[in-house]
Predict the 3D structure of the following.
Amino acid sequence: MKTQLSIQEKLWDLRRDHDYKLEEVATAVNVVPATISKYENKENKEYNIVTLNKLAEFYGVSLEWLVGNTEVRTSSLTDIDDLMLDDETIELLKSGRFNNRLFCEIIKHPDFIKLMTDTEIYVDGIATMQIKNMNDWLDAIRLQIIQQKNPDANDLYLKVLESSHIQEEEYFFHTIHSDWDNIIRTIRENHEHAAESAPIERPMSNDKKVQRFLQTLKFKSNPIEEFWHFFCDEMQIPFDHISVAEHKVMKDVFKRSKLLKALPNRKKSKK
């Protein structure tokens, strides 16, 4: 998931997005340009709340968003009652029991409205009567053909009419599942290159790379030691920060590997 931007990053982005110069922003909020530059510096930790409030008003964003207290970028005059959320839902949203940022991404997805519409049609039975009427019409046509033509039970046209029946639950479950698939797939793709997301391919998942390395171990003086180095590099573990006890434990574990046992230990073979 993407991490929240710092105050410095937000201020720098806002000025860049509006194509303002330091002097223009400084004049607007009645400070010197050096103050704006300081506020945008990632090392800065000190802010004047009055100046921050002026900057928020100047850029048209909420102060709460600027200081990181909310994900809502602009101040909203919408009353909570207008959202038609019950108390239990509001408490759930405030509880932190699930990822609210991911929830926001889901409901902002272009296919979310389709998901809700398809769900509402099924839950409220809006299409139930129309589907029943369509199936009844197909049955009537099928019965008419049987009475007039007396075809074989496996007649192609009879089978087509029979298979044309719509199973309401099956149809809507498939449709709703497809809506969810599109939403989740898109969000996952958007997160693939985020630094905070787990990589799609884990460092040790490349079997060919591991096999090639195992082949080179045949010519190493201490295969266990070499493999331990390789393992740490692949898993991004700082080798120099591992204690002596931890080194010993992991080496003892690797000594149980049948693959590593099969390799010659040239260190031992020296006389």
Notes: Confidence is low (pLDDT under 50) at residues 200-205.
